[in-house]
Amino acid sequence: MTSTLKSCTALVTAGLLAVQPAHAQMTALGAGEGQVDIVAWPGYIERGETDKAFDWVTKFEEASGCKVNVKTANTSDEMVALMNEGGFDLVTASGDASLRLVAGKRVQEINTALIPSWSTVDDRLKDAPWHTVGGKHYGVPYMWGPNVLMYNTDAFAGAAPTSWNVVFEEMNLPDGKTNKGRVQAYDGPIHIADAALYLMAHKPDLGIKSPYELNEDQYKAALDLLRVQRTLVSRYWHDAFIQIDDFKNEGMAASGSWPFQVNLLQADGVKVASTIPEEGATGWADTTMLHADAEHPNCAYMWMEHTLSSNLQSDLGVWFGANPSVPAACTDGRGMMTAETCKTNGMDDFDKIRFWQTPVSKCESQGECVPYYRWVSDYIGVIGGR
Amino acid sequence: MSWLRPASDALWRHPRLLLALLLVPPVAWLGVVYLGSLFALLAQSFFSIDEFSGLIVHEFTLKTYRELLNPANLDIILRTVTMAAVVTVAAAVIAFPIAYYAARYARGPWKAVFYLGVMLPLWSSYLVKVYSWKLILAKEGILSWLFETLHLTWLLDAYLAIPVLGGNSLSVSWTGTFLVFLYVWLPFMVLPVQASLERVPLSVIEASGDLGAAPGQTFRHVILPLALPGVIAGSIFTFSLTLGDYIIPQIIGTSRLFIGQAVYSHQGTAGNIPLAAAFAVVPIVIMGLYLWAAKRKGAFDAL
């Protein structure tokens, strides 16, 4: 009888341990679980299917035995929603999603000691506030880059626009035609920050310190600017591939965009180029974060190590027009990236970029700010013509 | 197999038991899987969302419904209902002559050609059709090329200059959204109208003529009333399909949201399931009213 009881207790304890989610950080790595499920931006995790030369998955799968399953998401909100739903191990979260994930307890602290290449991470990113909360690391830096201004070189007669005003104010472009109906804007509420960044440079009396921390007056000014933009924009872009199609078939002249679209369009022979105008740019700095209830934590840790140590940092940088989180990837020849491409992608422009953050009510610069949920509903209103 | 015989006897003696056994699985399917999931969604609309973390607060509140009445959200509802109504009326107007010809005049192989012509668009993927329309309607697309070849670009430009209806190009205008909706849902209108027209007895039409009615009078007083249930049945399809669609307005149009997109973006992207659920209630209510009116008109008598 006692032995039955004992084994029962053992079973219950084992059950409890198994049910207990891995909220505490892991201390040792075990064998791989055979797969890892990742939520990622489109174009972020390539296995040579779009272009044979760009593959940073196959070797990982062979070496680790972990099959990589990718679910792409087009906006940060989509990523947060997918992580809230669960069933994924990792997410490549931008700064406007990462803190929400931490606050919502959807991601867990990671143990950097289990990631041998942690020491090679860029010092500017190691303790970045979008993944470090209270001294705890909630992820491994993945990639970062600017939201560039993409423009049609014919419409601008070969000279790069120097200001974001081409997408915010009505004007004639160098080709003599108006920009009305020929510009696009991003279909995500975070675009309000681009308007705020523009106002920082052009209406200093508003006193905007950070485009993500806006009080009521500053926020209203940004929305007013976006209402002007609404009259210029014929279609907001949501899906990178629809924007690519619009630059090919709709005669688009300029839009905020990602280097990803610029590279694909240039590869197709479309006359586009990109620039970071004088106001600076918003940008993204993405972090690979581990789900609080990850089912495949060992594979997930192996993937995090792989993101830092393999050709990924280098080849993804070339593919996406982004910057590696491991500076050595620019020069050590682990992939196609060279010091030259790193410079083009803006490796030295780190300080010009305002990285995406989630706007919160209690903000650092002025105490009371307009929180994100209002950005969401108001931006829907602006697009709807309100 | 000794239990088979008593079991079979019992079923024979109690026919209701047999009926119950046969009915339980489909009713369970309808009740649990279909209605159950629907109510689970609707129940969400009485919750609200924590504004920072995006997690749902599971407490009863009507806050979410109040949010639905914001001007921006009311815009979305009105916009969608207007589009659905316009698409439905246009589909009925276009489908009626097609269905009339197919039902009354087409014979033999022509009839098959008509059926094929109406059904063919349903065989290819919905997305393929929408993307090809994007290419047709684009500024540098097939339609503008056609207008240019015919030296009619001025006509297209004049049309695009009309406020609300026009835009920078057809593919970013309300007209574009309307055309694609109309194309995609037209078969759902043609088929029920054709079925109802085929049921109008020829003798009645002849009698009307014999009694001295002009063709127009026969159409207004005999054919149309008898075919109306078919038109209403078709309109239920086109209206509800337009009301719920979220893909066409995202690819073709002005980026202003429709109800389906609002549900998608609040549920799928903003994680605001309560507001999404509240939005989902809107088409259900509208369709409920619509079906109630349609029933009174006798749209379901022939079912």
Automatic annotation (TrEMBL), chain A:
One of its GO terms (molecular function) is polyamine binding. The keyword Transport applies. It is found in: Periplasm. One of its GO terms (biological process) is polyamine transport. Keywords: Periplasm, Signal, Transport. One of its GO terms (cellular component) is periplasmic space. Residues 1-24 form the signal peptide. CDD domains: PBP2_polyamine_1 (cd13588). The keyword Magnesium does not apply. Gene3D superfamilies: Periplasmic binding protein-like II (3.40.190.10). Coiled coil: none annotated. SUPFAM superfamilies: Periplasmic binding protein-like II. PANTHER family: BIFUNCTIONAL POLYHYDROXYBUTYRATE SYNTHASE _ ABC TRANSPORTER PERIPLASMIC BINDING PROTEIN-RELATED, SPERMIDINE/PUTRESCINE-BINDING PERIPLASMIC PROTEIN. This is Spermidine/putrescine ABC transporter substrate-binding protein. It comes from Seohaeicola zhoushanensis.
Automatic annotation (TrEMBL), chain B:
GO terms for biological process: transmembrane transport. InterPro entries: MetI-like, MetI-like_sf. Keywords: Cell membrane, Membrane, Transmembrane, Transmembrane helix, Transport. It comes from Seohaeicola zhoushanensis. GO terms for cellular component: plasma membrane. PROSITE patterns: ABC_TM1 (PS50928). Residues 77-291 form the ABC transmembrane type-1 domain. This is Spermidine/putrescine ABC transporter permease.
